[in-house]
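Journal club prep, notes for RB
We'll compare a predicted complex against what the paper describes. Inputs for the alpha-D-glucopyranose case:
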Amino acid sequence: MLSIDHQIRLASEHVLSALAKRPSAQAGSPAWGRFQGRFEQHFPALFQELSALYGERADFLDFIETLLVTALEAWQARPEDLKALDLAREADPLWFQSQKMLGGVCYVDKFAGTLKGIEAQIPYFQELGLTYLHLMPLFKCPEGNSDGGYAVSSYREVNPALGTMDDLRSLTRALRGAGISLVLDFIFNHTSDEHEWARGCVSGAPEYQGFYHIFPDRGLPDQYDQTLREIFPDQHPGGFSQLADGRWVWTTFNSFQWDLNYSNPAVFTAMAGEMLAIANLGTAFLRMDAVAFVWKKLGTACENLPEAHTVIRAFSALARIAAPSLLFKSEAIVHPDDVVKYISYRECQISYNPLQMALLWNSLATREVNLLQQALEQRHNLAADTAWVNYVRSHDDIGWTFSDEDAAQFGVDAFQHRQFLNRFYVNRFEGSFARGVPFQDNPVTGDCRICGTCASLAGIEQGDPHAVARLLLLYSVALSSGGIPLIYLGDEVGAMNDHSYLDNPDQAMDSRWVHRPAYDPERYSDRHNPNTVAGQIYAGLTRMIAIRKAHAVFAGGHLNGFRAGSRSVLAYTRGGHSGHLLALANFSESVQRVPAHVLAAQPEIAQDLLTGHQHRLREGLTLAPYQVVWLDCSTAK
Ligand code: GLC
Ligand code: GLC
């Protein structure tokens, strides 16, 4: 058996000479030289990941060669402006750690009708300060229910209702010109049942055999189902759906979303080609959808398996060769111990922070910061070349993904507590300010998640006097705790729940639609009017955004916990050497005192960046209901 280094060297020489012989390679040209340089740098990592997945196969070398042909072709097709961007980003690899970063996310149709409509909104995005725009899935998908586009029928065609590929290219360029990076989903765990691979696979086309997990009978599905978690139990029990011909196909999500079979290297190659094509549209970040589910193994939950990480790292190494500035964002809405395993520079450089998101809502409901403070102190700091995407809510449900063990440290029974949170947020708890709705209520397991817009969950729908302050408090944490803050567009003007999905047979089953309301022109035109809720939210939010952008102390992701001496006050510091920022946030509707002794090590006087007010810290600090202060503790003033 050859040593791994030796194998890598042989494979590398073999593949490189095969590539160089291709007429299109233009071996010797400067473009080839750059490709070769990156190949030599990243091939060893790529080879090692792939050999862990497929190395036992007799055709392993052929597979690698075919894959690298795909990479070379994608590199050659990569537009020159993106190659220039690649060089710029390689020279500044931590560009996304800047405090100037601000994310927004929206559905193309709901926010602006079409891609052209989105392009026309660029001045608004600039007004808000966005540097990152996640457009929800926009590729071709089945008519009717497509899980909001998360069932892709072709990664090379834009959904015709939204526009064309040319519209998308033009939009991407215009966004880049405005300093906004485009984020698109890479929905690589599954395709729609209308994708040509899916059609070919069922009809017996040889090139697509083994692309999906299809079983002749219930034998294996029954065995797998014993250990699978049900993701959409309302749609179908277990992890499989029956085909018209009686066979069974793996469907983690809806029955029209067929899980791809990554144990087949042809699937890896095919998806790599799609990934690089999406990158070449000018996508800066790929939102790696449903990362937890991509690898299956009998007798396990088929979530977060080591091979799922290997698949992602292999895609990442390939991107370093053929689309070097492309970065990955992990969408792992799982146990916090598992979430962080996807985050590293060689795997996903950025990741949703579902724990912070869920615990923000937890603290609002309980008026206690214990779990959130613990998460910030023990689970927040990441490697310096990676970042959280901190958000308050997304297009998906809110699930209570905190760790049972973490909760137990405060004597909290996790199961009971989740039941309480569900009741609280769907307004089955007396005195609740929230107006959410349940999602995938599972009477068998007692599991349930919740849906609702930020405004409706924070009390604006109910008319609670503290609602605006609550909403701003949540966003203050996302904006000040490090990483990239992400706004679900509509939240900045207080968009409320929209129950019209119940009249749409393709959506009525899926209550996540309640919090995906369409752009409301009235709210947006109210945004500069301080007498409206929209105006109050917008003013508060844009003020925090401006302060964040103006102060380098918000850059990067590192924070230190700070104990404010009150059960309801969350506290942390940011920055270090040249002084720091102390953020305090009162999660209750009662006045809270931060006693003088906890502030003893701070400067005597510190200015609140949010109000400009100077606080004499030796006297302690009083926080009004839901008040946030961002104290500039840099120099004694
Ligand atoms: C992700 C998406 C979600 C979708 C699922 C299947 O979790 O965020 O909306 O239903 O993947 O693609
Ligand atoms: C995601 C999550 C799950 C979420 C769902 C979409 O992948 O794992 O918690 O609810 O898909 O709703």
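Talking point for the session: The mean pLDDT is 96.
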